[in-house]
């Protein structure tokens, strides 16, 4: 089988470990989706790790030629827009944090209670910050003057993020000290996922048409609250993740499984 990684960082731990499992019996290559990439002869499956506009455009071209792409370009793009993400989650009845779009931080009204502000468009190095007063808001607005953002209430939590990752229905998890929590960062902890939370993570994949993804969940008085969804995250340090990804790639490459994608209504919302 020919497996191609769409990424500028094929040495990423997850990708490198997956490639090592596949090498020998299968051909594994990497293609940097920089806008000028020539895919040449089609591979049997493409793993879309990059999420740049050029990567999405390349993935769409490959899909149009009949090549399977994990995750699909449509599902990946949907997860880049946190407004569309929240709208689809709400439409599906998922417990997602109430999310409000703001054109720029200077347009945000008085800070009456602690907030979380994030770049509307998810990308490497985007804005994710806690805001508790007007001074913090002004400082962020000065540094990010033209950034479209989304605003969520700062949920009353334990200060730990529940990071759930899913590869073809297999759930991996870790408890991480929130970057928004006050005080020094603490080391990550192992996490045994409650069955309802694991089922919630699997439902996210069905709704968003994802095969490889991450779900960030907060524990709010014992109830799960989703605050973000990521297509093809890093999934570092999770035993079994590379083998699960390798198995998924081979299933799709052999035609025994088709990549998921968002439903037509979701695609229409993303295009609106």
Structure explained in plain terms:
- The structure is a single chain.
- The protein has 272 residues and is of the alpha+beta class.
- It folds into 3 domains: 104 residues, Rossmann fold; 93 residues, D-amino Acid Aminotransferase, Chain A, domain 1, CATH 3.30.470.20; 54 residues, Dna Ligase, domain 1 (2-Layer Sandwich), CATH 3.30.1490.
- It has 8 helices and 13 strands.
- Strands 11-10-9-12-13 form a 5-stranded antiparallel beta sheet.
- α2 links the parallel β3 and β4.
- α1 crosses α7.
- It is globular and about 60 Å long.
- The two termini are 38 Å apart.
- The C terminus is likely disordered.
Task: Spell out the blueprint of helices and strands.
Layout lengths: L1 E5 L6 H10 L4 E5 L13 E4 L4 H12 L4 E2 L2 H6 L3 H10 L8 E3 L12 E5 L8 E4 L2 H10 L5 E5 L6 E8 L2 E8 L11 E2 L4 H14 L3 E9 L2 E9 L9 H13 L10 H8 L1
Organism: Kitasatospora atroaurantiaca
Keywords: Ligase, Ribonucleoprotein, Ribosomal protein
GO molecular function: ribosomal S6-glutamic acid ligase activity
